[in-house]
Amino acid sequence: MLVTADMASIVWRVTVAEGDDVQPGQEILILESMKMEIPVLSPMAGVVAHIPVAEGDVIEAGATLARIERSR
After folding, report:
1. pLDDT tens for residues 7-17?
2. How far is residue 68 from each of residues 3, 33, 37, 47, measured CA to CA in Å?
């Protein structure tokens, strides 16, 4: 499952790493927009398969922030 950005923003902090197990509702990144911190939460339980962004990246709405796969 792809996790995407709802709005243009800056990746302020990445709080998980590729290979980490995550639970539904767990924070995976924090975005910053208009001086507000916006937590991005995992929509499902699984493993973080890929994080194509890094702290400080400027992203557009709809950008892929992470890919989460179901645990096997």
Report:
1. 999 999 999 99
2. 8, 24, 22, 6
